[in-house]
Design brief:
single chain; 277 residues; alpha/beta; Aminopeptidase; two-stranded antiparallel sheet; globular
Length: 277
């Protein structure tokens, strides 16, 4: 899948189902990084970007708000690309801010388009009609997920069965509560990838490793469930505390750590096959 066909549709149908939200001066709704990567793993980053299309005027927010975690996962895109380089893997990264619509939630979920995030009102999200919300999904959500399907299908055709790994970051504090994990692994039903990854990371001295913290993959795992879990393919997500991936040096350390860990985990024979849980 290339974005050229999507762009062409927008140019010819500016009043189409996405409402023409993405203009010719705006970036695409997804990036496929290292598109020919051969490693049997697909990396995804749901909250890679803080971009808002010009037409939506920053959702009425001041520029400083779009630099905060409410807009994107700080360091997530850089770690994803660094990990893709180290593993020889393909990656799909969402192209727009989660404030427009959260790509890790089902469209229609009341939390997928927030009117207030971490105490900050989002003027451009107030009183959206059902049609306006659907247009957000058509413009930003579904193209990203279709790209994941496209790349994952290529990897499956080439074999062996690939795994899906999702990269996120989290804030050191939330609502006055400290979050002391350095890194955490999120997973739902399938333990094949998550459990050995947790075990390996916990062998590293001084590393505080969470298991379904500060969020639980048993409660929120839309992307990995949709593209891998539902089809019996191994999957999990990682949450990195953002102060560990907010500089080039920290990004390199995270990418090195995860590359070493995933190479070991992916050597397990039971990972590259379909198995339902």
């Amino acid at each position: 899948m290339s974005y050229s066909s999507v762009r062409s549709d927008l140019a010819h149908h500016p009043a189409g189902p996405d409402g023409g939200l993405i203009g010719p001066e705006d970036p695409p709704p997804f990036t496929i990084y290292n598109a020919e990567g051969a490693a049997p793993i697909l990396l995804v980053c749901d909250h890679a970007s803080r971009t808002i299309p010009h037409r939506l005027n920053q959702l009425g927010l001041e520029p400083w708000a779009l630099e905060r975690h409410i807009a994107y996962d700080i360091g997530g895109a850089a770690v994803t690309k660094g990990l893709a380089d180290r593993l020889g893997a393909s990656a799909v990264l969402a192209g727009y801010s989660r404030l427009l619509i959260d790509c890790n939630r089902q469209p229609g979920d009341p939390h997928s388009i927030l009117e207030v995030s971490d105490g900050i009102p989002i003027p451009g999200n107030r009183d959206l009609t059902s049609g306006q919300q659907e247009a957000r999904a058509e413009a930003f959500h579904w193209p990203y997920h279709h790209a994941i399907d496209h790349v994952f299908a290529r990897l499956r055709r080439e074999g062996p069965e690939p795994v899906l790994f999702s990269i996120h970051s989290f804030t050191p504090t939330l609502a006055g509560e400290d979050r002391n994990w350095d890194i955490s692994v999120l997973w739902n039903r399938d333990p094949r990838m998550a459990v050995p990854l947790i075990e390996y990371l916990r062998q590293r001295d001084g590393l505080q490793v969470g298991d379904n913290e500060p969020y639980s993959g048993k409660e929120l795992a839309y992307t990995i469930n949709l593209h891998a879990g539902a089809g019996g393919l191994a999957n999990c997500a990682v949450e990195i505390r953002q102060d560990h991936c907010d500089s080039p040096e920290e990004v390199d350390r995270c990418a090195d750590l995860l590359a070493e860990a995933l190479e070991r985990v992916m050597a397990h024979g039971n990972l590259h096959r379909v198995e339902m849980f």
